[in-house]
Amino acid sequence: MTGIKSICVYCGSQPGINEAYLRAAEDLGRFMAKAGIGLVYGGGANGLMGKLSESVMNNGGAVTGIIPQFLVDKESAETALSSLTHAIITQDMHTRKHEMFQRADAFIALPGGLGTLEEITEVMTWAQIGRHQKPIAFANIEGFWNPLLKNLDHMRQEGFIHTQGRVRPIVEEDPERLVAEIIAQAPNGEGDTSIIDRM
Ligand code: AMP
Question: What average pLDDT does this structure show over 131-146?
């Protein structure tokens, strides 16, 4: 039994122009469902987000969609949300991102746009400053993330990425291997490795 019970997947609310992206979203959803790993995502019904959640649900998996009220009609609809295993409507983006972070044991970025970039970058920055040790992975479909990975290498070489060991994202193109690598990276077989917050 894996310690990874749920994975938060960040991905485009658009389908992108390469059909490989939609195929990867579908495959990833299927492998997650088969591995008994629930999906946490932004609740969208379109693009890669919609394809991914549909695939998890169609393969018998559990989906938690987390979306702020002001995006409900833009990225989904109440009827689409009610078909998910669990839908959470938040007051704002900040609460959405926090809930997505809390409810996931690992993070994957499929191809996407600015929202996807912002979300995966944030979980990497939180890892860098020691707020969590949850696995982070780039689903590098047909090299989609290569420019960003090159940029990360550049920042590392120029001495701007510190605490080296903490920001070592998994980079993998094949969705099945990606899920397997995340399971293998879960520390001590425990999914929830977040550091206790004292506020
Ligand atoms: P995109 O990759 O731009 O298609 O967006 C993917 C998801 O990220 C969508 O659900 C957006 O609502 C969400 N998103 C957009 N902007 C942000 C942001 N600044 N912070 C967090 N999520 C965002």
Answer: 96
**Is 92 a member of any domain?**
yes
Distance 188 CA to ligand 1 centre (A): 32
Measured in Å, residue 155 CA sits from the centre of ligand 1 at 24
Domain assignment present for 26? yes
Task: Supply the range of the domain harboring residue 111.
Answer: 6-185
At 149, which CATH number?
Answer: 3.40.50.450
Does the CB atom of residue 3 touch ligand 1 within 6 A? no
Average pLDDT, the chain: 92
pLDDT value, residue 164: 65
Which candidate, 159, 107, 112, places its Cα nearest to that of 133? 107
Quick check: 155 and 195 in contact, CB under 8 A? no
Report the residue among 8, 13, 22 best suited for mutation to probe ligand 1: largest number of ligand atoms under 8 A from its CB. 13
Reported as a pLDDT band with limits 50, 70 and 90, residue 186 is confident
Tens-digit pLDDT profile for residues 48-62 = 999 999 999 999 999
Asked whether residue 190 is domain-assigned, the answer is no
Domain count, the chain: 1
192: in domain: no
Cα of 114 vs centre of ligand 1, distance in Å, is 6
Quote the radius of gyration of the chain (alpha carbons, Å).
16
